[in-house]
Amino acid sequence: MDQETTRNTSRALEQLKRLRQERAEDGRRKAERQKEQNRLQKAVLEALGDAERTVPEIAEAAGLDARTALWWVTALRKYNKVETAGKRGDYPTYRRK
Q1: Do residues 59 and 72 lie in contact, with contact meaning Cβ atoms separated by under 8 Å?
Q2: I need a surface site. Which of 19, 77, 90, 92 has the fewest CB within 10 A?
Q3: Residues in the chain with pLDDT < 50?
Q4: 58, 75 contact by CB (below 8 A)
C-alpha cells in the first residue's frame, strides 16, 4: 500500500471508532431515559393504588410536581392504564384500570 492509501484507511478507521463511541453513548442515554420513565410511571400507578385520586393527590403521593403528575396521568389515560373516575371539587379523579 502507498502512504496515501494508508492515511485514508487510518482516517476511515478512526471515524468508525468515533461513530461507534457516539452510538454507544446514545444507547446509554436512551437506556437511562427509559429507566427514569419507567420509574415515574410506576410512581404514578402506585400513588393511585386502588383509590380514586386527583392530580394534586397523585403528585403528593408520588413525590412529583403537579405538572409532571398531570403529564403522566394524561399519558397513562391514552394507553388505557388509567381512567377518569369522577370529580372531587374542581378536580377530576382518576383510577387504575
Answers
A1: no
A2: 90
A3: none
A4: no
